[in-house]
Amino acid sequence: MYLKRVLLTLVCVAVLFLIYYTLFTESYVSNQLLLSPTQNINPSKYKLFSNVTTTTTATISTKYTEDYIYVWCIFSKVYKNAPLKGKFHVFLQSLLSHSTTPVYLNVLSDSKSKLIAQSIIKNIVIELGVIHFKYKFYDINKAASQIRDIVKAMMPHFSSQPGTYYSDALFYISLGLHRIAPLYQRKAIMVDCDIKFVSDVQELYDQFLTFPPKALFGLAPELTPVYRHVLYNYRLHNKNSTFGDYLLTLPLAGGNETVTKGFPGYNSGVVLFHLDRIREMNKDYTKLISSDNVNYLTTKYYFKGHLGDQDFYTLLGFEYPDLIHRLPCVFNRQLCTWWRDHGYSDVFDLYFKCNGDVKIYHGNCNTPIPKTFYYYTIDDNV
Predict the structure, then answer these.
(1) Whole-angstrom Cα distance, residue 160 to residue 29?
(2) Residue 339's CB: how many other CB atoms inside 10 A?
(3) Model confidence pLDDT, tens digit, residues 186-225
């Protein structure tokens, strides 16, 4: 009888040990999946794209109609712009830490900058334990060669002096993104590296749902009087024009509806691209970005800019408003105050205001992005 009790006790201990081992092993494997996002996962369970620099995969969220949100950025010439490393780190860390939807990052880079970006990406992926993420590099010189005709049409009108920041071809790449992006990318988002997400990128992507039928791009308004300045001669000859004015929302008489007046231009720090539509209207779009059309627009509006693609998007919005969907300013809350101290202090705050909960901060003109940014709002009726 005693021997039977001993054997029964040993069997129970063995069973308990087996159960404990199984649970521990499953827990360990699960934690390893989160902490080691570059490990091999059975590819038969997931849809993968070829020619990806490094891949992490996970079950795709059902709320999103495609496999990934495609985000593009330019990370190039870091040896000439050392602060870009820190900006890229802040951008990517904020993007991934807030995202609940799989992200596919597309980086336009040169060979030296690519090595730096790879190191930053791997460190962030490990730090955050990210699994909903893939990324791919594109050679910036090859991309520039694919848009040579666009650069030729734009540069005479929207560049500073040769050799300055915005005179480089890479600041027109967004206008030819439909040529560079793979065809499986039907929609895409392109951002500057000096931004910081404080919300889920899915919220930005959902803005595609509000695009009018003809809209090709989505951009937030420019929050400085730069185009009031650039359009000085046009406004001089067109006294009643609202081009270059700050946005003003007024209630319509006898109802709850409002009307928005003013056109401060667009800021290209965050751009949404409906790539399918751009490709479908290939011939018409080619005419829009042709030298003839750019010459026509710049002549009509007495326009000489210096901000690259942003200047063209602004002119496009003047002439063809249906082609651009205006994003709420909270998706590109610019922080630059340069124009306040350069002749426009009396009206600057009317441009700079941005009501609502900020989703993306933009530290343009090298403005630091504080951990918490406060700025008072101004009543539209003032």
Answers:
(1) 55
(2) 20
(3) 999 999 999 999 999 999 999 999 999 999 999 999 999 9
Please give the Cα distance from 131 to 7 (Å, whole number). 47
d(CA 154, CA 189): 22
Write the Ramachandran bin of 58: left for phi over 0, alpha for psi from -120 to 50, otherwise beta. beta
pLDDT digits (tens, 9 = 90+) for 5-19: 655 666 555 655 544
| Residue 140 main-chain phi, psi, to 5 deg | -65, -35
Task: Report yes or no: 170 and 192 within 8 Å, Cβ to Cβ.
Answer: no
R_g of the chain, CA atoms, integer Å: 25
Please report the DSSP string for 145-202 in residue order: HHTHHHHHHHHHHH--STTSGGGSGGGGGGGGHHHHS-TT--SEEEE-SSEEESS-HH
The closest of 331, 338, 334 to 359, measured between CA atoms, is 331
Of 132, 153, 185, the residue nearest 309 (C-alpha): 153
Q: What are phi and psi of 2, to 5 degrees?
A: -60, -40
Question: What's the distance, CA 329 to chain centroid?
Answer: 13
User: Running DSSP on this structure, what letter comes out for residue 220?
Assistant: E
What letter would DSSP give residue 263?
B
End-to-end CA distance of the chain: 95
**pTM exceeds cut of 0.85:** no
Instruction: Tell which phi-psi region holds residue 98, choosing left (phi > 0), alpha (psi between -120 and 50) or beta.
Output: alpha
